[in-house]
Design the sequence.
């Protein structure tokens, strides 16, 4: 629950950060003269605004250019960031609902982990555990902010939510089936092909709905975030309800060398580590494959139209 999770979490943050930076690169080029930390923060914050509020965001950037004192620039940038997060994401569609649901899912995920620490305090084995937990909290925050960014920038919120839940259901059904039946019937291992297929379908659906590759990629990214959160909630909740059971032979065999006080603590720690890995792995796989499918389908549509 330490090395794997930290590596995956940091990798996920790097991918998410690169996407945000790439998204805002065009906006930065129009205000190159004062890209200090407050200007960078405000430029990034403007990305949370809906498309119909873009002029308001540009006005805030223009106002910042006239502020020279660094403390004043920081206060202005932080105030604008708070304002962009408080502005409703949109009216007459599912964006407000999706933003609230993703935020609630992140809070619920943090709550489950907090309950696990209180119920099984032996999970905490040292500084490495706190590092993993702190980074996990940062990922939940990043997921929430990135989801808000996507819906405010025009992602198909309702479609992304539906596709995310559907992808999570596919992962759960396939995972349970393969774990329980693959040894007796190896043919069930072929069901794993449904995991990348679900991500490809989600990206294709986003492109078909939005009619552009950019719309499809936004939907794929939102789908990945939702799918990862749903998977984590299901696995973490199931773990706490069953105290990490049932305990297989491998878990019982490895427990004496774990250094944890009892088998239940070891099982819960192991399963929570798996849930965190799934959160990131499923999100990344879904987002990457979905974005690839969106780009390919958009290219094929352009080529067909041109022909």
Sequence:
């Amino acid at each position: 629950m330490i090395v794997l999770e930290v590596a995956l979490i940091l990798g996920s943050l790097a991918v998410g950060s690169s996407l945000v930076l790439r998204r805002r690169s065009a906006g930065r080029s129009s205000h190159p003269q004062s890209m200090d930390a407050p200007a960078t923060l405000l430029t990034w914050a403007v990305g949370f605004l809906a498309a119909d509020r873009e002029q308001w965001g540009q006005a805030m950037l223009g106002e910042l250019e006239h502020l020279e004192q660094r403390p004043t620039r920081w206060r202005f940038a932080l105030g604008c960031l708070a304002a962009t997060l408080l502005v409703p994401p949109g009216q007459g569609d599912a964006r407000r609902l999706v933003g609230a649901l993703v935020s609630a899912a992140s809070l619920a995920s943090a709550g489950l982990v907090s309950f696990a620490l209180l119920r099984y305090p032996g999970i905490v084995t040292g500084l490495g555990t706190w590092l993993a937990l702190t980074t996990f909290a940062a990922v939940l925050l990043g997921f929430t902010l990135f989801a808000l960014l996507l819906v405010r920038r025009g992602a198909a919120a309702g479609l992304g939510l539906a596709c995310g839940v559907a992808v999570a259901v596919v992962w759960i059904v396939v995972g349970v089936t393969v774990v329980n039946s693959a040894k007796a019937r190896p043919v069930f291992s072929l069901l794993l092909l449904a995991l990348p297929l679900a991500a490809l379908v989600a990206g294709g659906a986003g492109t078909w709905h939005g009619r552009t590759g950019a719309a499809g990629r936004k939907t794929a990214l939102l789908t990945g975030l939702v799918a990862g959160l749903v998977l984590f909630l299901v696995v973490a909740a199931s773990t706490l309800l069953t105290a990490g059971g049932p305990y297989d032979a491998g878990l019982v065999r490895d427990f004496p060398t774990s250094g944890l006080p009892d088998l239940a603590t070891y099982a819960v720690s192991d399963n929570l580590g798996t849930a965190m890995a799934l959160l990131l792995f499923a999100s990344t796989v879904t987002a990457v494959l979905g974005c690839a499918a969106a780009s390919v389908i958009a290219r094929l549509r352009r080529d067909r139209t041109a022909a």
Observations:
- The longest helix spans residues 263-306.
